[in-house]
Amino acid sequence: MAVNILAFGPNGSGKGTQGAIVKEKYGMDHIESGAIFREHIKGGTELGKKAKAFIEAGDLVPDEITIPMVLETLAKSKEKGWLLDGFPRSFAQAEALDSALKEAGMKVDYVLEILLDRQIAKDRIMGRRLCANDNNHPNHIAFEAIKPVEKEGKLVCRVCGGELSTRPDDQDEDAINKRHGIYYDTDTGTMAAVNYFKKTDSKVISVDGSMGIKEVTTAILAELD
Ligand code: AMP
Question: Is the peptide bond before 88 cis (omega within 30 degrees of 0)?
Fold first, then answer.
């Protein structure tokens, strides 16, 4: 049976890194709304052009663009199961997802929540690096275990030697603050979406994201069947 997981955690909590590990356990698809947008921007698509300014400012991309994009991707992963990361980010998206899943005959098996203090999350974001070859290769200049390696005087991906870059929205403090404002908002923001799904009959896994990567992984895997 396909397993479906919703992964929550503020930007900088290590959600992407842990998601890539959990995905391996079940052989499911790892669906990251932010990564789908970045692919569109890289490919110069119409959707990418519409989303770019919102993303660079740290604002949410409007629901009429985001919701159909994510639901379409999820439908393709019905057989394999999915780990959804970055969506839902608001109460409205949570409601839209819940009803779309019911309609499609899918359910959320686990709600995974990585807890992290806002200031720690912010410090972490500024140090992360993206690999040009694979978005799931973790690189961070402040974490020994996933530090990029040096090659010919340049920092490259520790997994494959690929070129590294920073996300423009990761180096802009206003954008980070805005993204965290949306995340920690319990009225209409992402925390409202977390609380929405915590009330369903999905199993909830809450882990302390301030631990090291391995410890967080161990805590998560201990809760998964
Ligand atoms: P992320 O990689 O998850 O940090 O996402 C990067 C950016 O993509 C966010 O700051 C938003 O601008 C946009 N984005 C990603 N997911 C969503 C979503 N569920 N709703 C609206 N915008 C999103």
Answer: yes
Amino acid at 186: T
Rounded to whole angstroms, how far apart are CA atoms 177 and 201? 32
Residues of the chain with CATH 3.40.50.300: 4-121+172-224
Q: What is the pLDDT of residues 95-138, one digit of tens each?
A: 999 999 999 999 999 999 999 999 999 988 999 999 999 988 98
Q: How far is the CA of 151 from the centre of ligand 1 (A)?
A: 32
∠ CA 212-196-66, rounded to 5°: 85
Mutate to test the pocket of ligand 1, among 37, 39, 56, 90 (most ligand atoms within 8 A of CB): 37
Spacing, Cα 68 to ligand 1 middle (Å): 14
In 121-195, DSSP assigns E strands to 128-131, 139-140, 149-151, 154-156, 164-165
Structural contact between residues 168 and 128, judged by C-beta atoms closer than 8 angstroms: no
Average pLDDT over residues 53-63: 93
Q: State the DSSP code for 163.
A: B
CATH 3.40.50.300 fits 4-121+172-224, yes or no: yes
Contact 116, 9 (CB under 8 A): yes
Q: DSSP letter for 160, please.
A: T
Tell whether ligand 1 has an atom less than 6 A from the beta carbon of residue 47.
no
CA-wise closest residue to 223 among 102, 212, 208, 210 = 208
